[in-house]
Amino acid sequence: MNQEPIAIIGINFRFSQADNPEMFWHLLTNKVDAIKQCNRHLDNSSLKMYGGFIDDIDNFDAAFFNISHDEACLMSPQQRLLLESTWLALEDAGIIPQNIAGSDTSLFVSTGGNNYFSLMNNHHKSRFSATTENNTAMAANRISNYFDFHGASLFIDTACSSSLVAIHQACQSLWLGESSLALAGGANLILADGDFTAFTDGVMIASDGRCKVFDANADGYVQGEGVAMIVLKPLSDALKNGDRIYGQIIATQINHNGKSNTLTSPNLKAQVSLLERVYRQDKINPDTINYLETHAVGTTIGDALELKAIGKVLTKNRPLDNPLKVGSVKTNIGHTENVSGMASLIKTLFCLQSKTLVPNLHFTSPNPAIKFDKFKIKVQNKLEDLDSTNNTLRMAVNAFGFGGTNAHIVIEEAPKLPVGSSEFTVNIFTLSAKSESALLNLAKKYLNFIVNNSDSSLTNLCYSANSKRTQFNYRWCTVIESISELQENLRKIIKQIENKEYVVKKIRKKKKNNRCFSSYL
């Protein structure tokens, strides 16, 4: 490899029926199909529209981001989701936003269509400022402005490959030394039925609302919604800082189809060229890839062409008894379009972490246009543990865009580090938020996490809560000796807050600004 691996140290996302890692992993491992009928108001009320929809897209804590109610109403909901996801991804990475203000942190994001601005115009609610609030460039620039990032701030649109291209650009920024920290992400919401109607007329949407990837009955894709953000830094910096590492990116490449049969048709030669460049240039043996998350959306021709390209490059020297396992997260949550590469990456990271492959849905009869045996490729249709006793696990993610931009990323499991023994007899655990209700919700989230992860390290939990989160005005702390004691104390404070039995003590900060801080005691 010609460059240092890039560590993925923070993740946040929302997909259909999956607002957190636990929900997403449950969805993947239990063969959950998260496609449902749209219950939002549509221009065509008689239209039955199925997709991977996320809930509560109109909820936004504008005050948290110092945004007025009027401004928030004019903002594209995709920009609102990206702001929230960026904060939560940094929090997941253990980075306090104020600590990187003014730094060379770079940002690369994408969003779906600008339906919200059109809707406002249709209902005569558009204002001059709404142009700024919905401008696609602002999807990146608003975030960089709020967090005071001084690195590159780019909006990327290569259609369905956008978020994987964003990750590629983020890695390039780090490898070139343009930034020491980078974020990549995207958001996609379906706020009108225009695209659905057009794609249905173009025979691109599955008739039964299911992505039947690699199946003989595949007849199109299903639209999905989502938002996702990841935080990246060079592996050496992550190890030095003691960051939690989800996985490491060891190679990325992008290219374009050039001239194809049509502007929107995939190109076998270009996809083969891209894959050859990845594995030749970065000196990666294709036989070491344990799993490949494909772009496949459920179209007979496109899916077959993608697997043919993969077979030409990744499996030509592969043993017959060790076929390359493939799948597509779109069978669970639909095609989230410009965020689909991010969904694929996150699924693959979770498979790496758990050393488990998850089943691909709706695969009952193989597409006769795909020569699975000849390509030495197998669709992963069951839950399967991976053996990494002797080798480091490697997986890959593929994407190509509506218009010709292709992307490929290779990731490895996180380095195996020695387990420390720094548990303390007594620990202090603190919570803080911007309001009483936010503190209550945070306490509930921690309680839910502890209930589902009772074997967590108490010391690590306290360290992260105390040192890796922004300290706001409303606070609560407790001294505990065990996870079970923390669980009990969280239940008590939740009940006290809900019953208005808590005590608020005003503490005047001894600084020139003389601001007031409130603490729950």
TrEMBL record:
Q: Which GO terms describe its molecular function?
A: fatty acid synthase activity
Record SMART domains: PKS_KS (SM00825)
Note the SUPFAM superfamilies from the entry. Answer: Thiolase-like (SSF53901)
User: Can you supply a Gene Ontology BP term from the record?
Assistant: fatty acid biosynthetic process
**Domain Ketosynthase family 3 (KS3) residue range list:** 3-413
Pfam families the record matches: CurL-like_PKS_C, ketoacyl-synt, Ketoacyl-synt_C
Keywords, in A-Z order: Phosphopantetheine, Phosphoprotein, Transferase
Q: Does the keyword Transferase apply?
A: yes
**InterPro entries for this protein:** Ketoacyl_synth_C, Ketoacyl_synth_N, PKS_Beta-ketoAc_synthase_dom, PKS_NRPS_Biosynth_Enz, Thiolase-like
Q: Please indicate which superkingdom the organism of origin belongs to.
A: Bacteria
Q: Which family does it belong to?
A: Belongs to the thiolase-like superfamily. Beta-ketoacyl-ACP synthases family.
Q: What is this protein called?
A: Ketosynthase family 3 (KS3) domain-containing protein
UniProt source species = Crocosphaera watsonii WH 0401
Highest lineage ranks of the organism? Bacteria, Bacillati, Cyanobacteriota, Cyanophyceae, Oscillatoriophycideae
